[in-house]
Amino acid sequence: MRAGDAINHGLSSGSPVPMKSRPRLAPILAGLMILMLGLTAAVAAEIEIGGPFTLTDQNGQTRSDKDFRGSYMLIYFGYASCPDACPTALTKMTDALALVAGRDAARAARVAPIFITVDPERDTPELLKDYAAYFSPRLVALSGDAEALRTVAYAYGVFFAKAPAGDGNYLMHHTEFMYLMAPDGRYITHFESDVTAEQLAAALEEAAANPHRNSSH
Fold it and tell me: For residue 1, what pLDDT is reported?
């Protein structure tokens, strides 16, 4: 069972809730994701988190999940106009990698920090290029068409929806987890929004120190 399917199963025994009808449900969905993903160790064989993607990076280059094989993907879903959660998370990601690099540069180089937008209407590659550069030259910022982004978000159990903010503008409600994926693309763990840079760095170091435990090979 995929992560997105598990959420829909939990929401209803009938048809899944359409994405467009979910804005007011976003906080509920986020809470449900926390409860479900907290059970990951017990149901790892039943719920698959992650999956293939083909998107466009901030330099206009096509990137797929296969490009990151051999590296640990540290993935965050958000959007460039996000007022607080996204810049906070990306700052923690950058600071954590700096802590790891200060102790072992080679180990830090094996982690690929990735930002995937949930706002394809506004987050063009050009805009994401400036946004990513603010945090780290290593940050890979990915965008794509709405369908491609819905597909990858669904694979990770990430939900997002527009929330009108007045004057024709809008915010995006979205799941605020970071996902750590193994070099073979499998899910290792996720981090909630209250994780510190120090805790994140320690978890990255632990994962990199035990590559065989995190790989199916």
Answer: 55
Determine how many CB atoms are found less than 10 A away from the CB of residue 33: 23
Rounded distance between C-alpha atoms, residue 128 and residue 110, angstroms = 23
Nearest to 71 by CA among 155, 188, 185, 156: 185
How far is it, in rounded angstroms, from Cα 198 to Cα 5?
Answer: 33
Spell out the residues 6+ positions from residue 148 whose beta carbon is closer than 8 angstroms to its own. Answer: 53, 54, 55
Q: What is the pTM of this model?
A: 0.81
Cβ of 35: how many Cβ atoms within 10 Å? Answer: 9
CA-based diameter of the chain, in Å? 53
Q: Is the dihedral of CA 90, 95, 96, 101 positive or negative?
A: positive
Q: Residue 142: which residues within 8 A CB-CB, separation 6 or more?
A: 53, 55, 56, 57, 63, 114, 115, 116, 117, 128
To the nearest 5 percent, what fractions of the chain are helix, strand and coil? 45, 25, 35
Q: What digits encode the pLDDT tens for the residues 97-110? A: 999 999 999 999 99
How far apart, in Å, are the Cα atoms of 128 and each of 111, 120, 137, 142, 180?
A: 20, 11, 12, 8, 22
* Beta carbons within 10 angstroms of residue 90's beta carbon: 23
Distance CA 10, CA 16 (A): 9
d(CA 42, CA 192): 18
